[in-house]
Amino acid sequence: MPTDTESGLTFPILIGDIGGTNARFALLLDAFAEPKIFPIIPTTSYASIEEALQTSILDKTSVQPRSAIIAVAGPVQGDDIPLTNAGWIIRPKDMLTALSLEDVIIINDFEAQALAIASIGDEGREQIGPGAILESASCAVLGPGTGLGVAGLVHAQHTWFPVPGEGGHIDVGPRTERDYQIWPFLEPIEGRISAEQLLCGRGIVNIYRAVCFSKAQDPHLADPAAVTTHALAGSDAAAIEAVSLFSTYLGRVAGDMAMIFMARGGVFLAGGISQKILPALKKPEFRQAFEDKAPHSALLKTIPTFVVTHPTAALSGLAAYSRTPSRFGVATEGRRWRT
Ligand SMILES: Nc1ncnc2c1ncn2[C@@H]1O[C@H](COP(=O)(O)OP(=O)(O)OP(=O)(O)O)[C@@H](O)[C@H]1O
Known about the structure:
ATP binds at residues 16-21. Helices cover 34% and strands 20% of the residues. The protein has 12 helices and 15 strands.
Protein backbone atom coordinates (compact mmCIF):
# COMPACT_ATOMS: atom_id res chain seq x y z
CA MET A 1 0.00 0.00 0.00
CA PRO A 2 1.63 3.29 -1.01
CA THR A 3 2.12 5.77 1.81
CA ASP A 4 2.64 9.53 1.77
CA THR A 5 5.78 10.96 3.34
CA GLU A 6 5.63 14.28 5.21
CA SER A 7 7.03 16.05 2.14
CA GLY A 8 4.05 14.71 0.21
CA LEU A 9 6.18 12.42 -1.98
CA THR A 10 4.21 9.25 -2.55
CA PHE A 11 5.77 5.79 -2.64
CA PRO A 12 6.98 4.08 -4.76
CA ILE A 13 9.62 6.78 -5.17
CA LEU A 14 12.21 6.79 -7.96
CA ILE A 15 15.50 8.25 -6.71
CA GLY A 16 18.32 9.27 -9.03
CA ASP A 17 21.80 10.80 -8.96
CA ILE A 18 22.91 12.17 -12.33
CA GLY A 19 26.56 13.21 -12.60
CA GLY A 20 28.42 14.50 -15.62
CA THR A 21 29.52 10.97 -16.57
CA ASN A 22 27.28 8.49 -14.74
CA ALA A 23 23.63 8.27 -13.74
CA ARG A 24 22.54 6.07 -10.83
CA PHE A 25 18.92 5.19 -10.09
CA ALA A 26 17.00 3.20 -7.48
CA LEU A 27 13.40 2.50 -6.50
CA LEU A 28 12.12 2.90 -2.98
CA LEU A 29 8.96 0.85 -2.50
CA ASP A 30 8.08 2.11 0.98
CA ALA A 31 9.67 3.84 3.97
CA PHE A 32 11.11 0.60 5.34
CA ALA A 33 12.39 -1.27 2.28
CA GLU A 34 16.02 -1.03 1.16
CA PRO A 35 16.30 0.84 -2.16
CA LYS A 36 16.34 -1.45 -5.24
CA ILE A 37 19.46 -0.17 -7.00
CA PHE A 38 19.78 -0.44 -10.81
CA PRO A 39 23.08 -0.75 -12.74
CA ILE A 40 24.97 2.52 -13.36
CA ILE A 41 24.18 4.18 -16.72
CA PRO A 42 26.72 6.29 -18.65
CA THR A 43 24.86 9.55 -19.47
CA THR A 44 26.26 9.56 -23.02
CA SER A 45 24.42 6.29 -23.83
CA TYR A 46 20.98 7.97 -23.94
CA ALA A 47 19.68 11.13 -25.59
CA SER A 48 17.51 12.15 -22.64
CA ILE A 49 16.69 11.25 -19.04
CA GLU A 50 13.23 10.00 -20.11
CA GLU A 51 14.82 7.58 -22.58
CA ALA A 52 17.41 6.43 -20.01
CA LEU A 53 14.74 5.87 -17.35
CA GLN A 54 12.30 4.12 -19.67
CA THR A 55 14.88 1.75 -21.17
CA SER A 56 17.11 1.02 -18.20
CA ILE A 57 14.72 1.19 -15.27
CA LEU A 58 11.00 1.19 -16.05
CA ASP A 59 11.17 -1.52 -18.72
CA LYS A 60 13.04 -3.70 -16.21
CA THR A 61 10.55 -3.61 -13.34
CA SER A 62 6.82 -4.08 -12.84
CA VAL A 63 6.79 -1.25 -10.25
CA GLN A 64 5.39 2.06 -11.51
CA PRO A 65 6.89 4.88 -9.41
CA ARG A 66 4.43 7.63 -8.42
CA SER A 67 7.02 10.26 -7.60
CA ALA A 68 10.69 10.99 -8.19
CA ILE A 69 13.51 12.87 -6.51
CA ILE A 70 16.52 13.39 -8.72
CA ALA A 71 19.87 14.99 -7.86
CA VAL A 72 21.61 16.65 -10.80
CA ALA A 73 25.08 18.12 -11.40
CA GLY A 74 24.25 21.81 -11.82
CA PRO A 75 22.20 24.62 -10.34
CA VAL A 76 18.43 23.94 -10.31
CA GLN A 77 16.58 26.91 -11.80
CA GLY A 78 13.47 27.12 -13.96
CA ASP A 79 11.73 24.39 -15.94
CA ASP A 80 14.73 23.50 -18.16
CA ILE A 81 17.71 22.29 -16.15
CA PRO A 82 20.87 21.71 -18.21
CA LEU A 83 23.47 19.42 -16.61
CA THR A 84 26.71 21.37 -16.20
CA ASN A 85 29.04 18.69 -17.57
CA ALA A 86 26.73 16.43 -19.63
CA GLY A 87 24.43 16.72 -22.63
CA TRP A 88 21.05 16.15 -20.95
CA ILE A 89 18.55 18.90 -20.21
CA ILE A 90 16.21 17.82 -17.40
CA ARG A 91 12.64 18.98 -18.04
CA PRO A 92 10.56 17.89 -15.02
CA LYS A 93 7.27 18.68 -16.84
CA ASP A 94 8.26 16.25 -19.63
CA MET A 95 9.22 13.66 -16.98
CA LEU A 96 5.77 13.90 -15.39
CA THR A 97 4.03 13.13 -18.68
CA ALA A 98 6.48 10.73 -20.31
CA LEU A 99 6.95 8.61 -17.19
CA SER A 100 3.41 8.95 -15.74
CA LEU A 101 4.66 10.50 -12.49
CA GLU A 102 2.59 12.63 -10.09
CA ASP A 103 5.40 14.52 -8.42
CA VAL A 104 9.04 15.36 -9.26
CA ILE A 105 11.62 17.08 -7.04
CA ILE A 106 15.02 18.07 -8.48
CA ILE A 107 17.92 18.98 -6.19
CA ASN A 108 21.65 19.58 -6.66
CA ASP A 109 23.82 16.45 -6.63
CA PHE A 110 26.06 17.74 -3.86
CA GLU A 111 23.01 18.54 -1.77
CA ALA A 112 22.32 14.79 -2.06
CA GLN A 113 25.93 14.02 -1.08
CA ALA A 114 25.41 16.27 1.96
CA LEU A 115 22.21 14.38 2.87
CA ALA A 116 24.23 11.17 2.56
CA ILE A 117 26.75 12.30 5.14
CA ALA A 118 24.02 12.55 7.74
CA SER A 119 22.87 9.03 6.92
CA ILE A 120 25.95 6.86 6.23
CA GLY A 121 27.90 5.39 9.13
CA ASP A 122 31.49 4.22 9.67
CA GLU A 123 31.05 1.40 7.17
CA GLY A 124 30.48 3.91 4.34
CA ARG A 125 33.59 6.05 4.91
CA GLU A 126 37.31 5.79 5.59
CA GLN A 127 39.09 8.34 7.78
CA ILE A 128 42.30 10.01 6.64
CA GLY A 129 44.43 11.36 9.48
CA PRO A 130 43.46 12.43 13.00
CA GLY A 131 40.45 14.23 14.45
CA ALA A 132 37.02 13.16 15.67
CA ILE A 133 33.51 14.06 14.56
CA LEU A 134 31.80 16.57 16.83
CA GLU A 135 28.18 15.39 16.81
CA SER A 136 25.64 17.85 15.38
CA ALA A 137 28.40 20.19 14.15
CA SER A 138 28.54 21.40 10.55
CA CYS A 139 30.16 19.30 7.82
CA ALA A 140 31.53 19.99 4.34
CA VAL A 141 31.53 17.71 1.29
CA LEU A 142 33.85 18.00 -1.70
CA GLY A 143 33.66 15.65 -4.64
CA PRO A 144 36.14 15.57 -7.48
CA GLY A 145 34.39 13.81 -10.39
CA THR A 146 33.56 15.14 -13.85
CA GLY A 147 33.56 18.52 -12.09
CA LEU A 148 34.22 19.55 -8.49
CA GLY A 149 31.07 19.52 -6.37
CA VAL A 150 31.04 21.27 -2.98
CA ALA A 151 28.32 21.55 -0.32
CA GLY A 152 27.93 22.23 3.37
CA LEU A 153 25.67 20.50 5.89
CA VAL A 154 24.51 22.59 8.81
CA HIS A 155 22.67 21.29 11.89
CA ALA A 156 20.09 23.50 13.62
CA GLN A 157 16.79 22.91 15.42
CA HIS A 158 17.19 19.11 15.21
CA THR A 159 17.34 19.36 11.43
CA TRP A 160 20.13 18.89 8.91
CA PHE A 161 20.25 21.67 6.30
CA PRO A 162 22.24 20.94 3.14
CA VAL A 163 23.87 24.08 1.73
CA PRO A 164 24.42 23.65 -2.01
CA GLY A 165 26.60 26.07 -3.93
CA GLU A 166 29.16 26.42 -6.68
CA GLY A 167 32.18 26.22 -4.38
CA GLY A 168 34.11 24.22 -6.97
CA HIS A 169 34.56 27.42 -8.94
CA ILE A 170 36.52 29.39 -6.33
CA ASP A 171 39.86 30.88 -7.41
CA VAL A 172 43.01 29.02 -6.38
CA GLY A 173 46.58 30.29 -6.59
CA PRO A 174 50.18 29.10 -6.41
CA ARG A 175 51.86 28.89 -3.02
CA THR A 176 55.10 26.89 -3.12
CA GLU A 177 58.09 27.41 -5.39
CA ARG A 178 57.05 24.32 -7.39
CA ASP A 179 53.51 25.72 -7.77
CA TYR A 180 54.99 28.87 -9.30
CA GLN A 181 56.89 26.75 -11.84
CA ILE A 182 53.77 24.78 -12.78
CA TRP A 183 51.13 27.52 -12.78
CA PRO A 184 52.13 29.15 -16.12
CA PHE A 185 51.49 25.78 -17.83
CA LEU A 186 48.03 25.13 -16.37
CA GLU A 187 45.11 25.58 -18.71
CA PRO A 188 42.89 28.36 -17.34
CA ILE A 189 39.14 28.78 -17.75
CA GLU A 190 38.32 32.21 -19.14
CA GLY A 191 41.60 33.55 -17.82
CA ARG A 192 41.61 32.08 -14.32
CA ILE A 193 42.51 28.91 -12.44
CA SER A 194 39.46 27.78 -10.50
CA ALA A 195 39.56 24.81 -8.11
CA GLU A 196 37.68 22.79 -10.72
CA GLN A 197 40.48 23.38 -13.26
CA LEU A 198 42.63 21.19 -10.99
CA LEU A 199 40.35 19.02 -8.86
CA CYS A 200 38.36 16.81 -11.21
CA GLY A 201 39.08 14.27 -13.96
CA ARG A 202 40.28 16.79 -16.52
CA GLY A 203 42.03 18.68 -13.69
CA ILE A 204 44.27 15.65 -13.09
CA VAL A 205 45.29 15.75 -16.75
CA ASN A 206 45.74 19.55 -16.55
CA ILE A 207 48.16 19.15 -13.61
CA TYR A 208 49.94 16.20 -15.27
CA ARG A 209 50.49 18.13 -18.53
CA ALA A 210 51.74 21.20 -16.61
CA VAL A 211 54.20 18.98 -14.68
CA CYS A 212 55.50 17.57 -17.99
CA PHE A 213 55.74 20.99 -19.71
CA SER A 214 57.55 22.45 -16.69
CA LYS A 215 60.25 19.81 -17.28
CA ALA A 216 60.19 20.28 -21.09
CA GLN A 217 58.79 16.74 -21.50
CA ASP A 218 56.05 15.55 -23.84
CA PRO A 219 52.95 14.40 -21.93
CA HIS A 220 52.19 10.88 -23.16
CA LEU A 221 49.26 10.06 -20.86
CA ALA A 222 45.93 11.38 -22.12
CA ASP A 223 43.22 10.52 -19.60
CA PRO A 224 42.80 10.88 -15.83
CA ALA A 225 42.59 7.12 -15.17
CA ALA A 226 45.91 6.56 -16.97
CA VAL A 227 47.58 9.25 -14.84
CA THR A 228 46.27 7.90 -11.52
CA THR A 229 46.95 4.27 -12.48
CA HIS A 230 50.60 5.05 -13.31
CA ALA A 231 50.89 7.18 -10.16
CA LEU A 232 49.51 4.45 -7.88
CA ALA A 233 51.71 1.83 -9.56
CA GLY A 234 54.75 4.13 -9.19
CA SER A 235 55.52 3.65 -12.89
CA ASP A 236 55.67 7.25 -14.22
CA ALA A 237 57.47 10.13 -12.46
CA ALA A 238 55.29 12.92 -13.91
CA ALA A 239 52.09 11.01 -13.02
CA ILE A 240 53.37 10.44 -9.47
CA GLU A 241 54.06 14.16 -9.05
CA ALA A 242 50.70 15.09 -10.64
CA VAL A 243 48.74 12.95 -8.16
CA SER A 244 50.87 14.21 -5.27
CA LEU A 245 50.08 17.82 -6.29
CA PHE A 246 46.39 16.90 -6.81
CA SER A 247 46.32 15.59 -3.21
CA THR A 248 47.98 18.78 -1.94
CA TYR A 249 45.58 21.06 -3.84
CA LEU A 250 42.58 19.00 -2.69
CA GLY A 251 43.85 19.26 0.90
CA ARG A 252 44.16 23.05 0.61
CA VAL A 253 40.65 23.52 -0.77
CA ALA A 254 39.20 21.00 1.73
CA GLY A 255 40.87 22.99 4.54
CA ASP A 256 39.37 26.21 3.17
CA MET A 257 35.90 24.63 3.16
CA ALA A 258 36.46 23.35 6.72
CA MET A 259 37.16 26.93 7.82
CA ILE A 260 34.26 28.45 5.86
CA PHE A 261 31.71 26.04 7.36
CA MET A 262 33.53 25.58 10.71
CA ALA A 263 33.14 21.91 9.83
CA ARG A 264 33.83 20.28 13.21
CA GLY A 265 31.49 17.51 12.04
CA GLY A 266 34.07 16.53 9.43
CA VAL A 267 35.09 17.12 5.83
CA PHE A 268 34.03 14.37 3.46
CA LEU A 269 35.53 13.60 0.05
CA ALA A 270 32.83 12.17 -2.18
CA GLY A 271 32.76 11.52 -5.93
CA GLY A 272 34.31 8.73 -7.98
CA ILE A 273 37.92 9.94 -8.03
CA SER A 274 38.50 10.10 -4.24
CA GLN A 275 37.63 6.41 -3.87
CA LYS A 276 39.87 5.46 -6.77
CA ILE A 277 42.93 7.28 -5.39
CA LEU A 278 42.37 6.48 -1.70
CA PRO A 279 45.95 5.12 -1.23
CA ALA A 280 47.36 8.42 -2.59
CA LEU A 281 45.11 10.49 -0.32
CA LYS A 282 46.36 8.49 2.67
CA LYS A 283 49.92 9.69 1.99
CA PRO A 284 50.99 12.81 3.97
CA GLU A 285 50.30 15.46 1.27
CA PHE A 286 46.51 15.71 1.56
CA ARG A 287 46.32 15.96 5.33
CA GLN A 288 49.41 18.20 5.65
CA ALA A 289 47.90 20.68 3.21
CA PHE A 290 44.55 20.45 4.99
CA GLU A 291 46.11 21.34 8.35
CA ASP A 292 48.54 23.97 7.01
CA LYS A 293 46.20 26.89 7.68
CA ALA A 294 47.96 29.33 10.00
CA PRO A 295 46.67 30.87 12.20
CA HIS A 296 44.09 28.06 12.41
CA SER A 297 46.26 24.94 12.12
CA ALA A 298 45.40 23.82 15.67
CA LEU A 299 41.70 23.94 14.79
CA LEU A 300 42.20 22.09 11.50
CA LYS A 301 44.15 19.30 13.27
CA THR A 302 41.01 18.49 15.30
CA ILE A 303 38.75 18.25 12.24
CA PRO A 304 38.46 14.72 10.80
CA THR A 305 38.61 14.10 7.05
CA PHE A 306 37.02 11.11 5.32
CA VAL A 307 36.79 9.52 1.92
CA VAL A 308 33.20 8.40 1.32
CA THR A 309 33.53 4.77 0.24
CA HIS A 310 29.80 3.97 0.08
CA PRO A 311 29.26 3.00 -3.60
CA THR A 312 25.99 4.93 -3.99
CA ALA A 313 26.20 7.57 -1.25
CA ALA A 314 24.00 10.18 -2.98
CA LEU A 315 21.23 7.60 -3.46
CA SER A 316 21.46 6.67 0.20
CA GLY A 317 21.08 10.39 1.07
CA LEU A 318 18.04 10.69 -1.18
CA ALA A 319 16.55 7.53 0.34
CA ALA A 320 17.04 8.92 3.87
CA TYR A 321 15.31 12.15 2.84
CA SER A 322 12.46 10.27 1.11
CA ARG A 323 11.84 8.17 4.24
CA THR A 324 12.04 10.95 6.86
CA PRO A 325 11.93 14.36 5.17
CA SER A 326 11.36 16.10 8.52
CA ARG A 327 14.99 15.29 9.53
CA PHE A 328 16.24 17.45 6.67
CA GLY A 329 15.70 21.09 5.74
CA VAL A 330 15.52 20.68 1.97
CA ALA A 331 13.94 23.67 0.25
CA THR A 332 11.59 22.49 -2.50
CA GLU A 333 10.28 25.91 -3.59
CA GLY A 334 10.77 26.25 -7.37
CA ARG A 335 12.19 22.72 -7.48
CA ARG A 336 9.03 20.66 -7.34
CA TRP A 337 6.63 19.87 -10.18
CA ARG A 338 3.28 18.06 -9.84
CA THR A 339 0.54 16.94 -12.19
N1 LIG B 1 40.83 5.76 -12.12
C1 LIG B 1 40.55 7.04 -12.29
N2 LIG B 1 41.38 8.00 -11.83
C2 LIG B 1 41.09 9.31 -11.98
N3 LIG B 1 40.00 9.77 -12.58
C3 LIG B 1 39.14 8.87 -13.05
C4 LIG B 1 39.34 7.48 -12.93
N4 LIG B 1 38.30 6.85 -13.51
C5 LIG B 1 37.46 7.80 -13.95
N5 LIG B 1 37.96 9.03 -13.70
C6 LIG B 1 37.38 10.33 -14.02
O1 LIG B 1 36.36 10.59 -13.06
C7 LIG B 1 35.36 11.44 -13.66
C8 LIG B 1 33.98 10.85 -13.35
O2 LIG B 1 33.79 10.98 -11.97
P1 LIG B 1 32.56 10.28 -11.21
O3 LIG B 1 32.73 8.80 -11.31
O4 LIG B 1 32.49 10.87 -9.85
O5 LIG B 1 31.37 10.63 -12.16
P2 LIG B 1 30.14 11.59 -12.01
O6 LIG B 1 29.37 11.19 -10.80
O7 LIG B 1 29.43 11.53 -13.31
O8 LIG B 1 30.83 12.98 -11.80
P3 LIG B 1 30.17 14.38 -11.40
O9 LIG B 1 29.10 14.08 -10.40
O10 LIG B 1 31.30 15.19 -10.84
O11 LIG B 1 29.67 14.96 -12.66
C9 LIG B 1 35.69 11.51 -15.15
O12 LIG B 1 36.35 12.75 -15.38
C10 LIG B 1 36.66 10.36 -15.35
O13 LIG B 1 37.55 10.64 -16.41
